Amino acid sequence: MGLELESGKGTHARHAQVTCLLDTHFLIWITSNRKRLRRFPWLSRYEPWTLSAASFLEIQLLTESGRTESQMPQLADAILSDARFIVDEVPYVTLVLKSLEIGWTRDPFDRLIAAHSLARRLPLCSVDEVVLHNHRMIVPELR
Q1: Helix (H) or strand (E) holding 42
Q2: DSSP code of residue 69
Q3: 134: enclosing H helix or E strand
Q4: Do the beta carbons of residue 21 and residue 122 sit within 8 Å?
């Protein structure tokens, strides 16, 4: 189910079949059209891409710490109106309980996004070495 922040937004792809969950790295690279995406020519096969709303908060915190540049909440609004993305809403309690099962990382966003992947049974698209080594549901192209 798409997340609605404002009436009429995030509803365009509610019934599309989803095939993977993007981590925040991929979301940043796609929305900023980074050249490093060339290393992942298969990525478009997974459109529409599913996102965790936790990525929005992670991007905001990365921006506040100076590790990336972004304009939130304008970026969130643009993503919600972009047909390539589906922001999936998982109950918060479900995410927290699934996160408790993940002991291989101390990064709260990695935990939440991996928990989201487990809760929805969606393979995760991540380049994070810790995630790739430990998470049991990774897209086959990254294994």
Answers
A1: none
A2: -
A3: helix 129-134
A4: yes
